[in-house]
Specification:
5 strands; alpha+beta; 5-stranded mixed beta sheet; 7 helices
Length: 323
């Protein structure tokens, strides 16, 4: 009977240490929870401070926000107002120049040099000379379109510009159309060749060969047209005419003086002598023939003619008296 009573006492004696241990564990858990809560509170406090700072910045600096919005609006407006990128245009440029120069061969050499330096070449060339010995040269120059204006200005400065004409023809639609047709025709030729590879009958092969020849000819014609358009749009054509004439100096005084009158009189005298010489030269053959006829008459014909007797005065009549 005493043994069972002793057991609960020992249990009661061991209970306080267990409770103390549990209390310590609970205090430690609460301490950890408090630290976590304090850290979270500090974080939330920091977030509150940042939010307050943002709010202050919004409240204190609305102009900064407006400036940022304006900058963004300007950027969007710049993008909206920026011109759209256009497709490259294909333009045929031609020009004609007529320039009066003192030395046509020298001016022609300068034009050739300017054209070759620009990356172009000289085409057809024609040179004529008038009755007074003045040369006139016409030459066709082909220059890249990038240097077209530069070469044109240089040619104009070679002398006195008499005439200028320029023309620009937009052939962009033609270039795009020809390029598209070339692609389609190449695809068509490729399809016909595939059909020929698959054909087994001789009649089909013959038919396909004829069709292939037709389409190949059309493709070559399109390629030739494409190359011609490329050449005309990549190189500008300048027709240059160089006229060589003497440089006339204007008279300083329009009123004639003694020397002018003397020079005019001398010119008139020389002109009269020249016309007299011309008239004498025209009459001289006839005068020579007339002189020859007169000499023949006097030397040969007249001496042989019979001489007539002199008339005899009537008898009984005395000269100067009456009966």
């Amino acid at each position: 009977m005493h043994a069972p009573r002793s057991a609960p006492r020992s249990a009661r004696r061991s209970a306080p240490p267990a409770r103390a241990l549990a209390g310590l564990l609970l205090a430690a858990a609460l301490a950890l929870t408090g630290c976590t809560g304090s850290s979270g509170g500090s974080d939330s406090g920091g977030g509150a401070k940042e939010a307050a700072a943002r709010g202050d910045s919004r409240a204190d600096g609305p102009a900064a926000g407006d400036r940022a919005g304006a900058a963004g609006g300007e950027a969007d407006g710049a993008k909206a107002t920026a011109p759209p990128k256009l497709a490259p245009a294909h333009i045929i440029r031609t020009a004609s120049l007529t320039v009066r120069v003192e030395d046509a061969p020298k001016a022609l050499d300068a034009a050739r040099t300017a054209t070759e330096n620009a990356g172009g070449y000289v085409g057809d060339e024609t040179t004529t000379r008038d009755a007074e010995g003045h040369e006139r040269t016409e030459v066709v120059l082909r220059v890249p379109v990038e240097r077209y204006e530069e070469v044109l200005d240089e040619l104009e400065g070679a002398g006195e510009l008499l005439e200028r004409g320029a023309k620009a023809e937009d052939v962009t639609d033609q270039v795009v159309d020809v390029d598209s047709r070339v692609k389609s025709q190449r695809a068509s030729v490729a399809r016909v060749r595939e059909l020929m590879d698959r054909a087994t009958k001789l009649s089909d092969v013959v038919t396909l060969e004829g069709e292939l020849s037709t389409r190949q000819a059309e493709l070559e014609a399109l390629l030739a047209r494409q190359a011609a358009l490329k050449d005309r749009t990549s190189l500008a054509t300048i027709t240059l005419s160089l006229s060589e004439t003497p440089v006339e100096r204007a008279a300083e005084d329009d009123d004639p003086g003694f020397t002018d009158a003397l020079a005019g009189g001398w010119d008139a005298f020389v002109t009269m002598l020249r016309w007299l010489a011309v008239a004498l030269g025209a009459v001289l053959p006839f005068a020579a023939v007339a002189a020859l006829l007169a000499l023949l008459w006097l030397r040969l014909i007249r001496p042989r003619l019979p001489r007539r007797p002199a008339p005899v005065a009537a008898r009984g009549e005395e000269p100067g008296g009456q009966d």
